[in-house]
Amino acid sequence: MPAPSWPVSTLRPADLLSRLPRELRDKIYTDAVDVHGSIGFTEDLLPHVPPILREDTNLLPEALEILVRTKVFNWNWNNPQVAALESTSVCVNPCDIRQLDITCSEHLPSFEDSNFEVLNQHEKTYRRTDSRVRWEQLLDFPRLQKLAIYMQKTGDCSLNTLDFGPIMYALRARKPDINITFYLSFDTILKEYWEDPMWGNPADAGPGSYKPMGYVEMSDLVAPATQKDLDYVQEYLPRHLNIWRMPGHRSIKQGLLDETPADRRALAEHYAVQEPALLRYQMREHFELYQKPRESTAEETST
User: Which one, of 216, 106, 224, lies nearest residue 163 by Cα?
Assistant: First the structure.
């Protein structure tokens, strides 16, 4: 008896997939474009899409849409090759990103402690600095839902928020439901101090011997100021209501260099800033100054 013959189908797997409802296809895309870790901001997206979808002109846009909607993208500002906000045909469009991780370093101000009037004058020129302009680029992400900031501290002083503080408020003003998490590390400043030649390069302090602490979440430091923060500042720090100064900062180098990585993480928030409530209050006041030129420009445009 001859073997049975089966009809030969000319349908491709992609053709079968295209017959499914869009809701089911989206679920398949979510699993098919599964990515371990985050995706580089300027990275080519096509390798993250399976060939079966990549080769179909109808399914590829749908798969890329799910990829961008559900995956985390990372933007490393410490890498000059990817620091610029540029969209190409192979990388993600900023307008589509929902989740973004930023790796950056603390930018130190060019002036010392001052009152808010001096800060107001300084803001007029500070807004044009590269650091501020870079942070303002986040305002070009209209669909951003989750923002994670991984910052390396570079100064042995209180955390400087002059470049990014107002942008945190501006982002929340545009998207009240945005989730912002803030992580801080002292590894850059401690490693440099650990390997300083002044120690004579003993065996336990040479290159490669420093044990990193990693990042510690300190989202509460950049959270919106509350009435409780204002009450605290008015009661315990009244002299700091009209000056841009953080009292009694602890030295990161002196206090944490000899600690274990675990102890550095446990103590980190106490060395980032002495008075968190005051920092949040100052950030709110700074945002008011940041808004004024824009409000004036808007009024002039309307008249």
Answer: 106
DSSP 71: S
- Domain parsing of the chain, residue ranges: 98-298
Q: pLDDT tens for residues 65-85?
A: 999 999 999 999 987 766 555
Alpha-carbon span 25 to 172, nearest angstrom: 33
* Burial of 268 (C-beta count, 10 Å sphere; 0-12/13-18/19+): buried
Side by side, the strands of the sheet bearing 72-76 are 39-40, 72-76, 99-105, 146-152, 179-185, 216-217
- pLDDT higher than threshold 80 for residue 87: no
| Cα maximum dimension of the chain | 101
Helix locations, the chain, DSSP H:
13-18, 22-32, 51-54, 59-70, 116-126, 130-136, 165-174, 187-194, 227-236, 252-256, 261-272, 276-302
Exposed, middle or buried by CB within 10 Å (0-12, 13-18, 19+), for 61?
A: exposed
